[in-house]
Every structure is written in structure tokens, then in C-alpha cells.
Specification:
The chain has 416 residues and is an alpha+beta fold. 24% of the residues lie in helices and 33% in strands. It binds adenosine-5'-triphosphate.
Length: 416
């Protein structure tokens, strides 16, 4: 039986991964997991998400097929007891897949990937559930059925690229208090296991980034290549007592959300890989964000490196009109929120006002030409000059402290 779950938490506490971890323990009496529990990240731009748009699924082999309805009751009961129903934005969904077939697999493989790359309606999830007669339970507006069905779909069809995350949960009495984690042990675990684990610390920004600061039950999460790597790092970390821990298989850090596209095809709330030419040089806007315009075939879009991307902005600031780049990121308000950039070619020439009498000539206004302030000489043309560049072609990414769950770190490109 595949069980998919979503949308049980609120910003004030709880976490669907914790609910699943508790459920896994309860289900031990009825059977065993057939594979790793699945933690999938869906479209990161969905406005209804609480934090990271996570959805969960497990595949349980029941000891006795006659227990199916007891298991369903147990799952529904656990969600009813643990979900934060008081939050208007919490709309839990539970999906049970019992008899998979090819037609269901076919439909779900498309639905699940759309949940990561596209924006779905609750109606679409319900139509699929009804068409294939899939047992399910939706609460309140039933939005959680979208994520629950998508996660169940990945459990049924598999994830092509995947990573692992070991999540350690806090003892209940500590929820809400500052997390007690020995920082030296975290740096040591990173040094011993990187690059098989990643995003535990941010070296450039001198921060530990694997622990949230929110009220939820998560103490920390270790991301890595496989179970062995995350367990090795885990064994080195000293911290407050851990209530339980789980190793999930995930689509995190795989770039599954990115759609290769042309600028004119871009839609709001989706994430893309776009090639183009820098058509307006970067400028710094209020808040320390850096913004430039990218164009291709007559279509243009603004790209932004937000302030939290820290040192990444140094690269973006150095771009010039004419540079050839490929950008990776999500589109919100018709602007690409940059996660990575590949600089393919840097222009080495720039059009500038000519130099006269040892000084650069001044523009007289639109269509008026340029004038030397010293001798009064005029010029209509701009001069082509070779510009020194302080960046090189290459692939650049935001630092770990600004990484989105789905974004694939550069270190993984050399691993696969
Ligand atoms: P947390 O990370 O803390 O577990 P969350 O960020 O996962 O929380 P949810 O509370 O699960 O957020 O809310 C996200 C809601 O959006 C869910 O109801 C889910 O079904 C729905 N959803 C997820 N992906 C899509 C999508 N692509 N289109 C439409 N709705 C979606």
C-alpha cells in the first residue's frame, strides 16, 4: 500500500515529515517499508505552501492484506490528531494506492512531475483519484490531495535523480526553545563527509545552515548522496537528545523544478533554464538586490540576485551588455529569481564616449552627439573599447545559506 500525505502543518508548529515519522513507527505493527520513505519538494512558487512545499509518501507491505482498512483508519486518525486544523492554510490530504496498474502509472507520472514544475488545481487531483478509484481522504478545502497524490505518484513510478536527507527530530519538551547543537561537531562532520554530504554549513558565510530556526520539531537535516553518507555525518554530530530520526529519499538538489524554455514562453510561478544575452547591465536596487535584463529573439526578462544570495551578487554585478549567459531560477512578478548562472561568453568590447584632450567627451543629449569640454570638438560616433573583465566564463551558484530545496548544487554536477 502506498500512502501519500500532505498539508498537515502550520507556521506555528508541526511538520508533515514529523507526522510521517510518527506514522512509520505506528505502522510497524502492520508491515514493513518496501523502500525509503519519500520526501518530495513540489513547485517552490506555490503561494499556499507553509515553508518548503514538501509532500511525503511511503510504500508499506502489509503482513496481512485484511488489515488494509485498519491501516487506513490509523493513518486518518493520526492526521486528525496531529494536523494543525486551526490554521486556515492547513488542508490535509491522504491518498492510498492499493492496486497499481499501467494506466494509473502513466497518469501519475505526468501528474507528479507537473506538481513540481506547474500549478495544479484541486479539481485535477480529484478527477484522477476518481478516474482510478483511488482511496483517499481530503480535509477542509482538500488542497493537500494535490501533494499527497504527487508524492504517492513518485513512490509508484520512482524518482529518476534522487538524494538522501536524514532528519533528526527534537524531544517534544524542547519544541520552541533554541536548538542545542555542538557547532564544532557540525563543522567536523562536514569536513569529514563533504562532498558526499552538502549544505550542512556555509563556509563563505561562516554559518551552520542545516538546522531551522522555526518552532517545528526538526532539530536538523543532513543532505547527501546516499544513506551511508548522511549516516556517517550524523554519527559525528553532538546535540540535545534526539527523539527519532529518519533517512528519506528525496528529489531535493536535483533541479527537477527547472524547465528548459525560451524567454517568450515563460509563465509566472514556474522555474526555468533560459539562455540569452545581457541586454541591460546590472544595477543595484533598494535592499541590495542586483537586477539585469536578459534578452533572446526579441523577448526580454529581468533577472535578480536577491540580497540573501550574498557573494553570488559579486558575479552578477560584473555582467555587461552583450554577455552570453544561461540563467536558472523561478519566475515571480515576471522576474527570474536567480539560483545559478552559466556565463558562456563575456563581451570584451564596450561602446563608450570617445576620449578627447585626455578626457572622455560628454553626451549633449539624445541624438546630439558628444562634445569635448576642453576644445569644443564634436563627435557623432561612440568609440569601441576593450574592457577589462573581472569575472571569467563558468558556472556560478548562490551559497548554501540561500539555496532552495530543489536547486542542484554545482558539486552534484561533477558527481553525476
Ligand atoms: P512544510 O514544508 O512545512 O511541510 P509545505 O511548505 O510543504 O509545508 P503545505 O502546508 O504542504 O506546505 O502546503 C502546500 C499546499 O500546496 C498543499 O496543499 C499542496 O497540496 C499544494 N500544492 C503543492 N504543489 C502544488 C502545485 N504544483 N500546484 C498547486 N498546489 C500545490
Amino acid at each position: 500500500m502506498i500512502i501519500g500525505l500532505d498539508d498537515t502543518d502550520s507556521r506555528d508548529g508541526m511538520c508533515t515529515t514529523y507526522l510521517m515519522a510518527v506514522l512509520i513507527e505506528k505502522l510497524e505493527a502492520f508491515g514493513s517499508l518496501q523502500d525509503y520513505p519519500l520526501l518530495v519538494r513540489l513547485n517552490p512558487n506555490i503561494k499556499y505552501k507553509t515553508r518548503g512545499n514538501a509532500a511525503l509518501a511511503i510504500n508499506v507491505r502489509l503482513n496481512d492484506a485484511n488489515d488494509a482498512s485498519k491501516v487506513k483508519e490509523l493513518v486518518i486518525d493520526t492526521v486528525e490528531k496531529m494536523a494543525v486544523f486551526s490554521d486556515e492554510n492547513t488542508n490535509p490530504g491522504i491518498v492510498f494506492i492499493e492496486i497499481p496498474n499501467e494506466s494509473l502509472k502513466n497518469d501519475l507520472s505526468k501528474f507528479s512531475i507537473r506538481a513540481v514544475q506547474d500549478v495544479l488545481e484541486i479539481r485535477e487531483a480529484k478527477e484522477l483519484l476518481e478516474r482510478h478509484d483511488i482511496s483517499h481522504r481530503g480535509f477542509k478545502n482538500e488542497r493537500g490531495l494535490i501533494g499527497a497524490l504527487a508524492a504517492a505518484g513518485f513512490a509508484l513510478c520512482g524518482l529518476y535523480d534522487h538524494t538522501s536527507e536524514l532528519i533528526a527530530y527534537r524531544e517534544k519538551k524542547n519544541w520552541g526553545s533554541p536548538r542545542n547543537i555542538d557547532e564544532d561537531s557540525v563543522w567536523a562532520a562536514n569536513a569529514a563527509t563533504y562532498p558526499d554530504t552538502w549544505d550542512t554549513v556555509d563556509i563563505e558565510n561562516e554559518r551552520i545552515v542545516f538546522a531551522p530556526h522555526s518552532l517545528d520539531p526538526i532539530l536538523f537535516g543532513i543532505r547527501g548522496k546516499n544513506e551511508e553518507s548522511v549516516r556517517r555525518a550524523f554519527s559525528m554530530i553532538k546535540s540535545e537528545p534526539i527523539e527519532r530520526h529518519i533517512v528519506y529519499r528525496t528529489n531535493q538538489n536535483t533541479d527537477m523544478h527547472l524547465i528548459p524554455a525560451k524567454i517568450h514562453e515563460v509563465q509566472e510561478d514556474r522555474s526555468y533554464i533560459l539562455e540569452g544575452i545581457v541586454s541591460k547591465s546590472p544595477k543595484t536596487i533598494t535592499g541590495g538586490h542586483i537586477i539585469f535584463e536578459l534578452s533572446e529573439d526579441g523577448a526580454s526578462i529581468e533577472c535578480v540576485a536577491f540580497e540573501p544570495t550574498k557573494g553570488f551578487r559579486r558575479i552578477i554585478r560584473e555582467l555587461r551588455e552583450g554577455d552570453e549567459v544561461t540563467v536558472f531560477g523561478s519566475v515571480k512578478d515576471n522576474t527570474v529569481n536567480l539560483e545559478k548562472i552559466r556565463i558562456t561568453r563575456l563581451t570584451m568590447q564596450e561602446l563608450r564616449n570617445p576620449v578627447c584632450c585626455g578626457k572622455r567627451m560628454k553626451s549633449m543629449g539624445k541624438g546630439q552627439g558628444k562634445r569635448c569640454e576642453k576644445c569644443g570638438g564634436m563627435s557623432k560616433e561612440q568609440a569601441i573599447e576593450i574592457v577589462p573583465r573581472r569575472i571569467s566564463p563558468g558556472f556560478y551558484e548562490v551559497p548554501p545559506c540561500a539555496r532552495r530545496h530543489l536547486a542542484k548544487p554545482l558539486i552534484r554536477f561533477s558527481q553525476s
